[in-house]
Specification:
Layout lengths: L23 H30 L7 H4 L1 E7 L4 H18 L3 E7 L2 E3 L4 E3 L4 H16 L3 H13 L7 H10 L4 H9 L4 H16 L7 E4 L2 E7 L2 E3 L7 H16 L4
Helix pairs in contact: 3-5, 3-9, 4-7, 4-8, 5-6
């Protein structure tokens, strides 16, 4: 009986059928369409990211900063206690929410365009040094720490060793501060002191230390005691008031 030879599958490589290729003009238009769509998707992605990462307070921060001004005398124990017990602990928590200013108390002498200070001319020089520190290093976190350092040893102001030690402690270049003090034969620094003293006088501030919040007297430290601190004299009290004013100025609700 004749046997039929089985048919074996072909071992030749099979070429898959090619996808139909659109005409060149169509391909060009499709490529441009895909590129535009991809760019649009990327643009929407980054736009969404910007909204997600945006700080909601960014548009309010400058307008929302609350004025906080402290009036002191550099060689005054009440200034030391005021800074140490209330101002610095508060600033450590809300420094980004306040427009801080340090002003000085004295008396302008109109006959010689000078300034008299309660604790003598060494206090006037201490005031000038602290004003120069604020001028050269305008970040309150720096110059306020320097001022506090001097206040702890206020009896020794303006001994050079104290000034240099406090400058070193707070990463400040003492030569820059000294240059400010001596600039224009001292006229530049004396002008800053006179302006600061005149500001305190115009605001009827006479006691060191007087804290003014949002342009109103918030608390006074005088003769070793607090006064006119109706909303409290502890850091948490001042922090609470600053946060409240900051939110109100920003248009935020409690």
């Amino acid at each position: 009986m004749d046997a039929k030879t089985p048919l074996l599958p072909s071992t030749a490589p099979q070429t898959p059928p090619e996808d139909p290729m659109p005409p060149r003009g169509v391909r060009s238009r499709l490529a441009r369409f895909h590129a535009a769509a991809f760019a649009a998707i990327i643009g929407l992605f980054f736009l969404a990211q910007s909204f997600q990462c945006q700080d909601p307070s960014h548009n309010h921060q400058e307008a929302a900063k609350v004025p906080l001004e402290v009036h002191i005398m550099s060689k005054c124990p009440d200034a030391r206690d005021c800074l140490q017990k209330l101002v610095l602990p508060s600033m450590q928590n809300v420094s980004d929410k306040v427009d801080f200013k340090l002003s000085f108390i004295g008396r302008v002498t109109h006959d010689d365009d000078g300034v008299q200070c309660k604790h003598g001319q060494t206090e006037c020089l201490g005031n000038i040094i602290e004003l120069c520190a604020a001028s050269v290093y305008p970040d309150p976190k720096i110059y306020l720490g320097f001022t506090m350092c001097l206040s702890r040893s206020y009896e020794d102001i303006p001994q050079k060793s104290l000034l240099e030690d406090c400058a070193l402690e707070h990463g400040m270049d003492f030569d820059k501060i000294n240059h400010c003090v001596s600039q224009d034969d001292g006229a530049f620094a004396m002008g800053m002191l006179r302006e600061s003293v005149e500001r305190s006088a115009e605001l009827n501030v006479t006691k060191s230390c007087t804290i003014r919040l949002n342009n109103e007297v918030r608390c006074i430290r005088d003769d070793g005691a607090w006064s006119e601190c109706d909303d409290g004299s502890k850091p948490e009290d001042l922090i609470h008031d600053i946060n409240k004013l900051y939110k109100e100025a920003s248009g935020w609700s409690e």
